[in-house]
Structure formats: structure tokens, C-alpha cells
Amino acid sequence: MTNPYTFSQRKRLERYFRCLTASCLQGTLKNYYVAYEFGLAERLVRKSMIREVFKHWSITDAESLKRQIRWLMEDGGRAEYKSRHMHLLALTETSRHRYLEAIKEENDEKNNAKWDVVVKCLHQLPSGDVRAYGLAWAILLCRIGQVKRFLKKEEAWNIKLEAAAMLQQTYNSWEDFYLAYLCGSHYAAEKPGIHPYVMVSGMHDLLSDSTLLYRKIKWDQPLLPKSRDK
Q1: For 156-166, b where at least 16 C-beta lie within 10 A, e where not — what string?
Q2: Which of 89, 160, 92 lies closest to 126 in space, CA to CA?
């Protein structure tokens, strides 16, 4: 329920949710939709972005949206990633190299590329937990679902709170979150792989050029309502 929250608390949390989805946003409006919510003023552009997101996640109606959100919350591909991460972590450098060479002989390009992502992220992301990817997208789908009236306002709010709580329990900073998101997104891409160039997203801009995350939207943003908003 949003009722226990004051107006300023709700505004702050909505801004926090938008920052959490900044990793998902690319293109000319990537920063706009971090600063602002989807609204009537962007009707044509909003429809275009929603169409692209729905196509990406194979969403056609309210039921498919909710089903996709549930999957992203419960798994989002992170179980498979974590399993591969733990398997490689248990091997010595020599054994790991031999194992990956054996996999390449199977000539499954996409599978090989996924293994390559995991091994390249092995030490950058010691936990092997890429839930940042799925949960960030779950929050973005809630934002869009509310605009499309596929989700009620309170329903979307509660899912966003739950996803944010899971993220805070898993990562210690915006940097940790962003790194895990990148590993997850490279792994889940249609053509998996670590690219030699930076995919400039809203989160990339926030971390490199903005003081918003450090001055106002702290990573450990309180999620529970307070009797008095300071």
C-alpha cells in the first residue's frame, strides 16, 4: 500500500525505482525516462518504447506481462548463470581452460558465447549473482504495465518495493548493481558476448556524469514508510 507513505517519500522512492531501471534504457531518451515517468505528454514516443520492450519480452497482454515479471523476479536466468559460475570457479585455471576448449568443440556458438561471458566475469563478479538484470527489468515492466493499465497502481508499487528490497540485500552499492546488471545483460543478449565498446545506458550516464545517485538517491534508500520524512 502507498497510503503509509508521505508525498515526498513516494516521490523519492519512485525516483529510486527509475534509477534502478536506468540500466535497461538506451537511445536518445534514456535519461529522460530516468528523470520522468511515462506520461501522456510522451504518447507517441511512449508507445514506440513500449512496443519495443513488449516485443523484446514477448508481451501481448496483461497476463503475459505478469508472467514475465514473475519469471524475472523468481529467476530471470540467474540460476543458469550461477550454476555455470560455480562450476568454473571450482576448477583450476588449467582445468577451466581445458573444459572451455571441450565445450567449443560442440560448435554451439550461442552456448560458447554464454560460457565466455561467465568466465570473463568470473572475478569481476565473485558472487556470480546477476539478479540485477532480471529485477531491474521487472521494475521497468511494472512502470510500463501501470501506464498500459495491465497492472493496478498498488500492484505495481508492491512489486517494485519487493524487487528493490531484493537488490539491496544482494548488492552494496550502485557500482556493484551496475556490474552485475552488465554481466547478466551480456549473458542474456540475443548474441551473448562481452563487447569491446561500452553500451551507453541511463545508468552509465548516472554513474559517470551525474551526482544524483551520490547526493540524493543513495543505494540503501529506505523502503519502508517513516512517520516523519526528514
Answers
A1: bbebbbebbeb
A2: 89
Output the pLDDT for position 227: 60
Mean pLDDT of the chain: 90
Residue length, the chain?
230
CA distance 135 to 74: 9
CA distance 144 to 72: 15
Model pLDDT, residue 230: 43
8 A C-beta contact, residue 37 and residue 18:
yes
Please report, for residues 31, 65, 97, 142, 180, the alpha-carbon distance to residue 45 in angstroms, rounded to integers and kept in the order given: 14, 20, 47, 18, 29
Q: Indicate the residue type of 164.
A: A
Alpha carbon dihedral 188, 192, 195, 199, in 10-degree steps, equals: -30
Give the mean model confidence (pLDDT) for residues 179-200: 88
pTM of the predicted structure, to 2 decimals:
0.91
